[in-house]
Prior knowledge:
The structure holds two protein chains of two kinds. Chain A is mainly α. Chain A has three helices and no strands. Chain B is 94% helix and 0% strand. Chain B contains two helices and no strands. Chain B is rod-shaped and about 90 Å long. The two termini of chain B are 44 Å apart.
Amino acid sequence: MIGATINEHPDRLEGPSPATQVALDMAKRSVFLLPLVILFGAALDGTEGALSVAYALAIVVINFVLAAFVIGRAAQISFALVFGAALGGFAFRLGLIFLAILAVAGQEWVRIVPMGITLIVTHLGLLVWELRYVSASMAYPGLKPKEHRQGVREPVRS
Amino acid sequence: MSAIASAASQAIELAVEATADEQKANAAASSAGFAYGLAAIGPGIGIGYLVGQSVQAMARQPEAAGMVRTTMFLGIAFVEALALIGFVVFFLAQA
């Protein structure tokens, strides 16, 4: 089982975080999405548009990974910390996104419209895409197990 | 004398126009900020409710904590899209 296992401390989790596993899988999928997004940006605004959408996609992916890492780390410390980490992390990450865009807003290569569209569409698109691969069952709390051609499941990792 | 008066009136008109433009820009900026603030309220409430319920679920059934955490993460990401939309609108309104 890839997900966390319960130990003798019921107030926290041990083992790898399934949320981090899901976020890293989304980062992997974003690599496949990148050429498509760059083509879209180039079609809208040339090289500047392509650079802007690539920057926006990087923001989305870093946002997902950071969110999963913060929640996973908080749950390994204490369940009580998850609430603060999730809400504080939300405000913190919004601030980070704001700063990341504000830092480049005046640059010549930045096109706000393709960047904004990419932020929203890739955020939702990656999530919906990932939902197909999320198991969220007690046996496999993260991703669904990969099935071999013969239909045999991968050996379970503890 | 009349030339001076007309020049002065032109200068006053320009100053009034500049002030009106500045006022418009200030109003646009403050409206964009206000809209962004409003857009962040809903996701804040949503995430608070979502995480509260998730923590309760983890406390009631610790063996399902991994599954709950994955679902919570995805839920947070979906709710956060609303805040991102408000954020993008903020930048577009300023552009």
